[in-house]
Design a protein that fits this description.
Rossmann fold; 2 domains; 12 helices; 4 strands; 57% helix; NAD-dependent DNA ligase; BRCT_dom_sf
Length: 286
């Protein structure tokens, strides 16, 4: 058990380090830094328990704290902080051994880019550059959906409209909504949830996944059985509904929960009528 605990701790520290570097890449992608981004960094860093021993995170949090302490942010302070961010991006070594590591880096990059609710030309170029260097992930969820969305927008709308629509889409993909909420808590998967008007409970096949606010997964399964559903252990072409719990991890590709989501999305793209719905939406129809 102790070995498992240390393994999980190391894995979580690595995820946090990947997120740190990715977010900083996004924040400085346009070579500019504003007060909203500084506030975002302050709140995000304070929320990262797995970075408490990370020297770069400690230095960065101290620097941000000093800037915000007197309530006045000067140009010199912004320039010094931007230099620190760029140095961390340049010199911090975080191995990206698996595809999911690169997916997490991309999601963090997106979070940094959209932190101030702006997507400008330089930031869009940074996203395109990352995707170009990682084109082997174009079939990997959720990067495949981002690429598809960008291609659709490029063909159908003006550059200005594309930037605004893509900004809103990227916020949903990353689950980030800092400007509206002041919180760095992410709510991923909203962008793939189906909005439905009704649910046919009786004899419909269902897969439940994730952690639920309404109870344990077994509790949820019992409720589903009571409503007449047929329970499936995994997502397949025969699945009618995939219901995901509200306590969802943003690193969805790193575990079985993420695998189910990815497979369900793939089946939807292939034309199968599977519905992906949240715990709260499902509850509203019980």
């Amino acid at each position: 058990m102790e070995k498992v605990s240390y393994f999980c701790l190391d894995r979580n520290r690595k995820k946090a380090a990947i997120s740190l570097k990715g977010i900083l890449q996004g924040v400085v992608a346009d070579q500019e830094l504003n007060e909203v981004e500084i506030l975002f960094l302050d709140v995000w860093l304070k929320s990262q328990e797995h970075l408490r021993d990370d020297s770069d995170a400690i230095d960065l949090l101290d620097a941000v704290g000093d800037i915000l302490a007197d309530g006045v942010v000067t140009e010199d302070e912004i320039d010094d902080l931007k230099t620190l961010l760029e140095d961390i991006v340049k010199f911090k070594e975080v191995p990206l051994d698996k595809n999911i590591d690169r997916v997490n880096e991309f999601l963090a990059l997106v979070s940094g880019v959209v932190a101030d609710d702006i997507l400008n030309t330089e930031e869009l170029s940074a996203l395109i550059d990352w995707l170009s260097r990682n084109d082997d992930l174009f079939s990997t969820f959720p990067i495949n959906l981002v690429v598809k969305k960008m291609e659709q927008l490029e063909q159908s709308v003006s550059q200005e409209t594309m930037s605004e629509e893509l900004l809103q889409y990227l916020k949903k993909v990353s689950g980030a909504n800092f400007c509206e909420t002041g919180s760095v808590e992410v709510h991923p998967l909203a962008f793939i949830e189906d909005e439905i008007d009704s649910i046919n409970h009786l004899n419909s096949s269902i897969v439940v996944s994730g952690e639920f606010d309404m109870g344990s997964r077994d509790d949820v399964k019992d409720i589903a059985i009571g409503r007449g559903y047929r329970l499936l252990g995994s997502v397949s072409k025969k699945t009618d509904y995939l219901v995901f719990g509200s306590k969802v991890s943003p690193n969805w590709g790193a575990n079985n929960f993420g695998g189910k989501i990815e497979k369900a999305v793939k089946l939807k793209l292939e034309g199968y009528p599977i519905k992906i719905i949240s715990e709260s939406q499902w509850i509203s129809f019980l």
